[in-house]
Amino acid sequence: MKKIIGNNNIDDFIILFLEKNLTEKNLMLSSIDAYKNDLNDFHRYLTKNRIQLLACTYEHIVFWIDSLKKKSFEQTTLVRKISTLRQFFNFLYAEKLIMINPVTNIISPKKNMILPKFLDETDIKKILKYLYSNNDTFKNFQTLVLTELLYATGLRVTELVSMKLSNIDDGLESIHIMGKGNKERVLPLAKITKKILQKYLESSDFKKFKIISGQRWLFPSRKSHLTRQAYYYKLKAIAIKSGLSRNKISPHMLRHAFASHMLKNGADLKVIQYLLGHEDISTVQIYTHINLRESLEAIKKHPIRNALRED
Asked: What is the pLDDT of residues 143-168, one digit of tens each?
């Protein structure tokens, strides 16, 4: 280690940092690659300005951050790069490879909250109206059931398309899902969802496909079960036929719509968190901002507000 310090070789420091994160934090390789790219960028900055790593100060890092801002990086990228550098210097300080930590007083800019795109209730009605009017083939009927079930439960698209018949209880009252982290959740089904699901299960076409695919998938295809990509493209086509932009719909946006509309109609945030299968409630709180935005728009149209403006 002393040899590394003596040589002041930043490449060796970076390797040590990456190895520690890979082995001890069990990070994905994509995260390690991002760390590596960020630190290599910082290395180039030091080299260009003839700054030795061990002589790097708070002021040098502030200048580096300013140089990033001039490159017009997105806020999320800027926050990530600063976070990477903070972790790197914290590591060097903890390992006693540096005596003074230059990032101690560095303040990261706040992430801009990116609200998810979502469909309003009018959009959902247009899509379902089209699907109910065009379910004469098994594939179309299957797409209708997929969409009803997704909007009714907020399932992840992978959870949805890979559902097995064993996920549904005998009375069609609920479905059992094994989600991320092998955590099971039980999702109740509304009457309209149960009705369309029962009709689907009793159809002769479903029974025929069930035999072909091995009698276990809820949404069978010729080989196994419908893929999420296939459903994605079906939704895009339906959007156009429903009079919506194809960019306005995806399975994930239907999941967002489920959560947002549930909250708008009085559902508890904790309940929505459970139904979506999120471990951290802060992930779900984004939907409060969506509904706040709607509320602000409604206030702008309030007759009292408009009357005051006229006065």
From this structure: 999 999 999 999 999 999 999 999 99
Given the residues 81, 225, 255, 256, select the one marked as catalytic: 255
The catalytically annotated residue of 180, 183, 208, 305 is: 180
233 is catalytic: no
176 is catalytic: no
CA gap 241, 182 in Å, rounded: 38
Please, what are the domains in the chain? 2-94 (1.10.150.130), 121-300 (1.10.443.10)
pTM of whole model > 0.90? Answer: no
Residues 6+ apart with CB under 8 A from 228: 157, 158, 160, 161, 251
Catalytic residue among 60, 80, 252, 264: 252
Residue 156 is among the residues annotated as catalytic for this protein: yes
Annotated catalytic residue 132: no
Find all residues with CB under 8 Å of 66, minimum gap 6, and list them. Answer: none
User: Of all helices (H) and strands (E), which one includes residue 116?
Assistant: none
- Per-residue pLDDT tens over the stretch 100-143: 899 988 877 666 555 556 678 899 999 999 999 999 899 999 99
pLDDT tens digit sequence for 84-95: 999 999 999 998
Respond yes or no: is residue 255 known to be catalytic. yes
From the list 156, 225, 234, 261, the catalytic residue is 156
The answer to whether 287 is a known catalytic residue is yes
What residue ranges of the chain have pLDDT lower than 70? 1-8, 26-27, 109-118, 181, 211-215, 280-311
